[in-house]
Amino acid sequence: MRPRTLTARGGMLLAVSAVALVAASPAFAQELRLAVRASIEPANLDYQVDPYTSTMLINTFMSDPLVIRAPDSSFVPGLATSWEISDDAKEFTLSLREGISFQDGTPFNADAVVYNFNRIMDPETGSALLANQVGPLESVEALDDMTVKFTYSEPWVTFLDMATKAPIWSPTAAAASTPQEFDKELIGTGPFKLVEWVANDHILMESWDDYKNANAAVELDGKAAVDTVRIQFIAEEGVHGSVVASGESDIAYQIPALSTDQYTDNPDAELLSIGQSGTGLQMIFNLREPKLQDIRLRQALLHARDMGKVNDILYDGLYGEADGPLNNIHPCFWEGASEMYPFDPEKAKALLEEAGWVEGEGALRVAKGVEGVPDGERLELGWSILHHPEIGEVVQAQFLDVGVGISVEKVPGPIQLERVNARDFEIMYERLRSPDPKILDDIWNSQYDYPGGWAWTGYVNEDLNTLLKEVAGNPNWDARCEAAKSAQQHIMENALVLPTLSQPSYFAVSGKVDGFKLGAEGTHFFIHDVSIN
Amino acid sequence: MGGYILGRILQMIPVLFIVSLIVFAIMRILPGDPAMLMLQGAEGGVITPERLDALREKMGLNDPIIVQYFNFLTGALVGDLGESIRFREPVLDMILDRLAPTMQLAFAGLVCSLIIGVPLGMIAAMRRGGWVDAFTMSFSYLGASTPVFFLGLVLISVFAFTLGMLPSAGSTGWRSLVMPALTLGLINAGLIARLMRSSLLDVLGQDYMRTGRAKGLPPRLLMARHGIKNAMIPVVTILGLQFGNMLAGTVVTETVFSRPGIGRMIVSSILQKDYPLIQGAVLFLSVTYVTANLIVDILYAWLDPRIRYDR
Amino acid sequence: MTVEAVAALAQRRPPARMALRRFLRHRGAWVGMVLLVTWVGLAIFADAVAPYAPNELVARARQAPSAAHWLGTDQLGRDMLSRVIHGARISLVLGFVSVLFGMVPGVTLGLVAGYIGGRVDAVISRIIDAMLAFPSIILALIIIATLGPGIVNVMIAVGIASVPEYARLTRGSVLAARAQPYVEAAWLVGNRAPRIMARHVLPNTSGPLIVFATLQVGSAILVGAGLSFLGLGAQPPTAEWGLMSAEGRTLLRRAWWIATFPGLAILTVVIAFNLVGDGLRDALDPRARNP
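Predict the joint structure of the above. Result:
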């Protein structure tokens, strides 16, 4: 307990019970209360182990990464002050920031970086995702005390993106623990120290007295203005959407679109929003299914949907557009995707007739001479998603107008994986989020069509693979982006995907909060400079 | 009495063995590959088959089923329930971490249902046939027929958002316990009220009460001294069973009020297909449940020597 | 009401006509019957009564109750009244079918165990005990996890989860019935086991079974709603009340009617089953009165 709490309210506090004392104290110390959806609570609080974006975000409060993605999406110095990239994008040499130490007092240096990357790649750590993002790393070595060099066996164009994600922990502390236990005692270089993590409830951090700025995107240098940060995980969406309005939280991260009306005309709070570049909430077709092998059916489905209307009905038009395999805010979005399949039920019907799907006795069309489909079979397709079932429900009504049925099925993650691995699905939700176009390669390059890979659609085309190889391997950003656009055009022309909408991140921020800064992406923000009035 | 207790405890052994078999078998049938789950993230990147296989090996998923069961069982006997796939922590630690909040909730819910139910039942019995009685009985039906999640959300809407009196989420401090306990309490108070009412009506008709009245004891004293005490016996004996109900009720309540707890952990472990965690938690809960029922049975037998649950 | 208490009814079943008379005099039972008949009627004639099809997008989404849409429209713009009416069909079927799924295997097991006795009884009893060792919601949860979510699977899960209770209840009644002189007499005059069971034992156990099953219908609907809340129950666009209420809950502050009306529908139908169940119990056993 902080002494000034006692002096300020000492007389009164003596009169109340110990329980009330404990409950009341954080209200007097400056506490930043952050509300986060329980569905994205980490399983392990160390992103070197855990695969979730939320884990990465929370880690940045406790440890600044090597490189920072600034709000304008540029890379700016973090623990590394500068970097040199070889022309073939195989060697990365980083100069490290001087005078930084970890929260346990041990110095930050090249050896610490080497230790951390060895830890990430060590199979014993069991890194779920970061090891993949680090990629085909051949070696990481300390050239001197403050210079570290990464060498790759093949071009690794997403190196800097990865360097914004990898948390750097105190080697002394990490070595003294196990990957299982260390996530309760994380020691980084960041402004906040982990106090406790009560799973399914909250994470408590306190500001670190000796923080030195290692993050060019923020101003803080020294102890943070708030004394503690409490991240409360909230299981009910509706509740999560209202906690800033009710004064229970200072910032609510990723509230539902339909809760935002509580903040639009609210003098005590502010509504911020930012998109998440990536694929959007896209639905991919399984081309192994006989019905879906015919491009005319796929094109018909694209013409039969009116995503603008879906957006209006469900989200007051607040969701973002996603017209192609990358969403419209993605830096490498191909604009041609927006005009390719306008809402046109008549055209959809004509395409369906052409493909052999004729009107039947019921509301659904039936097969008549469709290859691989027995005559008389009704045109009904499975629509499997992890969340946002409501989009499927509206699309369901729209498709019904042209005689196509879809059965919307919300499946838990494990069931989705099982289906995908057995390639047993028709239309499946598949979303990846990143401002880097490499995600196109992951999803559409048929070389990743094996269990564990992300290439689920079953589409094999060497032209597309060549384009994607360029996307994944060319060190030149512009060339990659161009290749990505061509790849998107190819994907859309072949109607391999049914794009829907893109989910923006909404933040409700109390008027008492100063210095809150959004990141470049909806999955990231900065609380270094936050103070509470 | 001693023989009866011993007999009941011995009967638990085959039961628990079958329970372990059922739990283990069901977990094997569940769809999904736990190793894949561990590796697949939300951001992309490719998982190689080699990495997948190495992880499967490490997790013991490549062993024959019998070996896996044997490992599970021998571990469980010494308190080692394995390690959660998703959380990579010992299952027993995870259960123990969440045991306290669940028990607090179940206990507080029980207390709530008693505080509401017992007085209501008493008043209803004493004013039998009047509007209080009618109200109490309607209330008891309402409580038992409302979906738990709906009641919880209504309470949040009123007490957290409209009145701003209580926190809507979390488990820090006693205030966060009020609404979840009230939710469980309201759902179960009706049962207690009805039981209390009929039991008190029973007692009021007993000879010793009539004798007391005939002897001119003040009604209030008579009620306090003999009536309530005797009427409480069936209420107390049903508490064990109620506690089981409460545990079940926590599954939904913990989600609505964003509290940590065993029920919520089981739900999410099922969704994540976290084999060892489901196995361990369900086994743990079953053992607790069986033990609670055993204690209740023994209590019954002790309170009422006529009852023997001979099989 | 515990299973034992219901089982205890078996020995003291009064003649049917007396029971009917007592049932008709039961005020609560009348209220329950009226509610129930209303809901069943709505369920049967849903297509005629409901102004719209349940899954049709008929108007702007999230409209408050009005003359055009008495209960408002939901998050997609479907007519809430039509969905609640059609939901009666689904929720009632869910309740009855779950009970059937629990009762048939449960009663069979209980009859076999209670009547044959000996080693068969010992084995069945241990299995029943093992199943009873899971709180029923947990048992339902793991069955759903195995079968996957969906309304049919909910019926199976809720049904199976109640199998041990039916089995225990039946077994208890059978044991009681077997001790009756008329069963012994039937055996002595040469009636074979299946016949005795069908003729004498089963009818004698039906009273407590009917009571228990009636109460179970209500609780199956409640459990089904709870599973929908957890995302493991009925799938969209099914007009199942639990799912409707669960889907609307995010909007509780903005469009209260979406979650509230299906919630009230659940409430009334479960109350109806509880009232009727209690009425039946009182009618079948006046001494176990618990009004």
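Chain B has a mean pLDDT of 81.
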